Amino acid sequence: MNDTLKYYEDNAEKLIGSTAGVDFSRIQNSFLQLLPPHPEILDFGCGSGRDTKYFLQKGCHVTSTDGSEKICQAASSCTGIKVKQMLFQELEETNVFDGIWACASILHVSKTELYLVLRKMCDALKSGGIIYTSFKYGEFEGNRNGRYFTDFTEISFQEYIRDISEFSIEEIWITGDVRPGRGDEKWLNLILRKMDIHCQSMENT
């Protein structure tokens, strides 16, 4: 078990308590507006299950995953569905999801591995599918308070994914942390869309 997973196993109750009650509906609803009715959603690193529960209440079909066994158990209790324990690198689905919700989750993957994870996320999406993801804002990469973080700015993220030609950055914006007392911490929020490369090339000819 790596240090980040151990941190989540050791601190599951505390971390769930700090995030489960946070109102994230503005971004959740913005994400849902980009998806078809009753979409197939992957909650990729679901944490407390807060977002899975919200999406289920909105009539979505949700597949929920997390790397921590304790967090999977807690999220299963919260949502009423089985949460699958898996690492981000183990995603193998192809052309399944209308949307992937990766809220403050894949930021724990190193830059050397994140490219593969993003490619797997792209493969798992249907054409035109949407990803919401978020990273701490900055240029830091490494261990911070017991967990591994990969931070990005608008420019560094655009440079990082420039070789994944299927991805179009639909929206990029910065917010403060929504947890009480942490508003000074900045987050980079992203909406990515999987483009149909064949159709895109035909349009450019």
Automatic annotation (TrEMBL):
<dbReference type="GO" id="GO:0008168">
    <property type="term" value="F:methyltransferase activity"/>
</dbReference>
<keyword id="KW-0808">Transferase</keyword>
<protein>
    <submittedName>
        <fullName>Methyltransferase domain protein</fullName>
    </submittedName>
</protein>
<keyword id="KW-0489">Methyltransferase</keyword>
<dbReference type="Pfam" id="PF13649">
    <property type="entry name" value="Methyltransf_25"/>
</dbReference>
<dbReference type="InterPro" id="IPR029063">
    <property type="entry name" value="SAM-dependent_MTases_sf"/>
</dbReference>
<dbReference type="GO" id="GO:0032259">
    <property type="term" value="P:methylation"/>
</dbReference>
<dbReference type="InterPro" id="IPR041698">
    <property type="entry name" value="Methyltransf_25"/>
</dbReference>
<feature type="domain" description="Methyltransferase">
    <location>
        <begin position="41"/>
        <end position="129"/>
    </location>
</feature>
